[in-house]
Amino acid sequence: MRRKSASDAVRVYSNPFMDVHHTRAEFDGFHKDYFVVDLGPRAGVVALRDGAVLLTRQYRFLPDDYSWELPGGRVDAGESPEIAARRECLEETGIECPDLLRLVEYYPGLDNFDNRTTIYLSEAPRVVREFVPVPSEVVEIRWVPFGEALAMVTSGTILDALTVTGILAVRTLRRVG
User: What is this structure's pTM?
Assistant: First the structure.
């Protein structure tokens, strides 16, 4: 039984993209220290067209390489995850997704990452403007056949949690119906 609430957390670091909080939770007979990285909520979209999924290519620090990912990003203050998913896809790719269906919602880590993530499915995406690479953001977009994207997940070529979760959620949805 826990005796201290997360609201007792103390901010130990902050920048425009995240906050880090520390709290000590006391249980019957033991305690744990938690350092929680608050990145804010995130949203992404699995856009499907003609059997292919839309992926973006971005540089990522930890693998020190470019990564294929679903379009997505932070949910701004006052914005719903659905609106954020639409906005992020349009900003990153020039593709609009007006028909979003909520696929899955999750936390990447239940003890240390406070960024509830919602992924949507769009089966009627449409190009509304030409894609323009932005080196600090997305450098390339590609429609990847769904089977190939799934193979990229299972082979470890795609490691991004949002992308892995979104692709596997679509696969599950297709199998279950």
Answer: 0.91
